[in-house]
Amino acid sequence: MLGITLEEVTPGRALMRMRVGEDMVNGHGMAHGGFLFLFADAAFAYACNGYGPVTVAQSAQVTFLLPAAVDDELLAEAVERTRSGRTGIYDVTVRRVDGTVVAEFRGQSVMLAGRAQPRRD
What we know:
Blueprint: E1 5-10, E2 13-19, H1 33-48, E3 55-64, E4 73-84, E5 87-96, E6 101-111
Antiparallel strand pairs: 1-2, 2-4, 3-6, 4-5, 5-6
């Protein structure tokens, strides 16, 4: 519904793309933080679920650095920082396609089902 597409996914990594629509802006005319959070969270979800067992967010935070405007095309790149047992930490950088960083997101995951998989480098 938001036009988010999955560009790449491997265990511990994901890259997604989204164009900011007119229905995604706040009262100031810039991309609403909720949409940016949702976008980063989606990349986080793909990255942490790439190992197989059901994994969800235990906590997450976002830092908004620059505004995004209508028609900005954004990329969200999620990268696993560490995984231990059933938990993991992932960083997601949201940037315009020109490389300008818009937001940084950090999520902590927890595995709900299955057994912990050894880290694959």
